[in-house]
Amino acid sequence: MSVHKRDVKVVTTHQLHNMKERGEKISMLTAYDFSMASILDAAGIDVLLVGDSASNVMAGHETTLPITLDQMIYHASSVVRATKRAFVVVDMPFGSYQGNSSEALRSAIRIMKESGAHGIKLEGGAEIKESVTRILSAGVPVMGHLGLTPQSIYKFGTYTVRAKEEAEAQKLLDDAKLLQDLGCFAIVLEKIPSTLAKKVAESLEIPIIGIGAGPHVDGQVLVVHDMLGITKEFKPRFLRRYADLHSIMTEAVQNYVQDVKNKDFPTEKEAY
Question: Which among 20, 103, 227, 260 is least surrounded, fewest beta carbons within 10 Å?
Answer without folding.
Answer: 260
